[in-house]
Amino acid sequence: MLILVKYNFDPKFHKHDYFIYNQFLDVTVNNQLWLHLQLHTMARILTGIQSSGKPHLGNILGALKPAIEMSKDPKNDSLFFIADLHSLTTVRDPQLLKENTKAVAASWLAFGFDTDKNIFYRQSDIPQVAELAWYMGCLTPFPMLANAHSFKDKSEKLADVNAGLFTYPVLMACDIILYSGEYVPVGKDQKQHLEMARDIAEKFNSLYGETFVVPQAKISEEIMTIPGIDGQKMSKSYNNTIDIFQEDKALLKNIKLIVTDTTPLEAPKNPDNCNVFKIYALVAKTHEIASMREKYAAGGYGYGHAKQELYECLLRTFAIERQLFNHFMQNPTELETQLACGAEKARAIALPKLKEVRAKLGL
Ligand code: ATP
Ligand code: MG
To answer: How far apart are CA 293 and CA 138, in angstroms?
Structure first.
């Protein structure tokens, strides 16, 4: 039966679908032929969020929401994970790391990721990815990593510039290629890392023969990079985030910290230069955005007013997700059960791929 499935596979798919083989091993011959037609349009979506902090508005709009939208397409199978190994580049407190991991998991679920249809796992539960990262690191040119914008940015801003930060793109490439991810929904900040992942996969394929699917970034052009409260890229490690899951009062305090200029309340203002408006424009409805734009232009409308509107808009927009997030944070065993089940499914893809790689390398 398996041979027949393989024989019917489009060569584009034969590389990566151990999981699909497993799922459909017991269908009848006729069904297999039907299945074969369906698989031509099937895509594997893969993305992760580090547990370097609680997910923020940038993670949610830039990665989590678009990824979940893509995962709803019945033709896609999705692997979404919590990148806790990556977080070790910045987090030194084990308790905090655990808490953050929980928060990232709770966020995926709060936004409605369907863990039955898809695969939801914690990166460190399949530590073989770190083994693959060593192999791939040995193929990655040093100058490619030295030119990474993200490393340059982080090494300027962070006190602890470690080798893990430097080799981060290699581990990220392995996160994707180990599971044959085809489409990777990420924020614009990850574009260069995705190009590196492609280069790394292609290099291995050209040296050792077709092994890895070469992934593609899926970057939502309207979303791009969400600014933080200081106007730079919102990032967990820059301390400039908006945490939509915190208590109302703390959220309002967080919004009040958004940096604005000193234009007096009465004066007309340019919304396009304002961090508050930029963030509002990413979450509010079209007519609400137009109305705020008019208020800025008319004058007599202060940044304090805009911040209050942004706060209320966030509460409205994310009311359900905020509730669900709290539910999962208070029920960690529910999270752990989901993650254990996801780890099993993820392992079933990762282990055979790694075996293939070892054999090709001569190990
Ligand atoms: P860190 O500072 O630890 O790197 P981060 O806030 O940049 O954390 P990541 O875990 O690195 O978050 O990124 C998770 C996903 O969120 C990635 O797909 C990334 O592209 C996306 N993302 C992160 N920050 C933003 C942002 N400001 N705008 C849009 N997308 C973002
Ligand atoms: Mg990042």
So the answer is: 52
